[in-house]
Predict the 3D structure of the following.
Amino acid sequence: VVGERERGSEMAAAEGGEEAIVTEGEAVVYEEELLQNPYSLKLWLRYLQVTGSGKKGKSEVSFSQRKLIFERALKALPGSYKLWNMYLKERRDRIKTKCINDPAYEALNNTYERALVFMHKMPRIWLEYCKFLRIQRLVNRTRRTFDRALRSLPITQHDKIWKEYTKFAKEAQVPEMACRVFRRYLKLEPDSVEEYIDFLKKHGMWNESAVLLAQALNRDTFTSKSGKSKHQLWLELCDVCTKHAPDITGLKVEPIVRGALKRFTDDVGKLWTSLADYYIRLGHFEKARDIFEEGISTVVTVRDFSMVFDAYAQFEETMISAKMEEDGEEEGG
């Protein structure tokens, strides 16, 4: 027992110059038992409980002493998830009020790396580590850690990692990185494409969002996770293509809109005006007139006719006003 106490004193001195393990009360009993059975998880957990909280009838030790107990326990039982989890949680709780530049954060990062040598098949440890890195705003290190987690864990547990990985990618404010992450994710979960489409729209990447939405609509097995019907998705695709015409280079927009015209007879007025608006935004005004004329001659309801006619009239008024302004500038010049 004396020899063990001396070794404990030397280790504590190396850590921070404080005294080693508590040598009074119940702690002595546990030290003696652990000398006889150092690989008993139950004994280590009970010892940590006794030296931990300082409740009535129990010894309270400094954190450096308690840290030493954890290190001894993990040296004897490095494959214990319960010990690693308790140790990491206690370390996190100790530094959560400190500035992220404090050396204690990097020290805990190193402890996580040590834990993952033995706990690399435990998704909870990976997730907690990634969350801790996100708090420190270490974008590249967090990304690499997520990638390591995916390589280490079986594919049946990847969904737990990807949920947090995509969340991190959206929050990191690095669109190029987020796009690469989502493209990988969609190979595993293609039905989650709407989450990526929303991200692309938010960052003005209209062409890729339109292409992905068109690909999703072409899959008979696709089901919207946000509860949208095929009708809503088709109108959304037409809306993206026509309102952001100069950005759409990967799709032929007119066949898409005409396909929607055949499918959804309740929205033909809106679709004709959208198709005309597409050519207006491209600067193809004569083609826009042809679309308006075709729409007026083919619609069958008063509501659709008035919608197309009003848009056509507004377009012509705008063109006349622009022409008059142009002529006025020439005369004034």
Remarks:
- The first helix runs from residue 2 to 16.
- The chain has a mean pLDDT of 87.
- The chain has 17 helices and no strands.
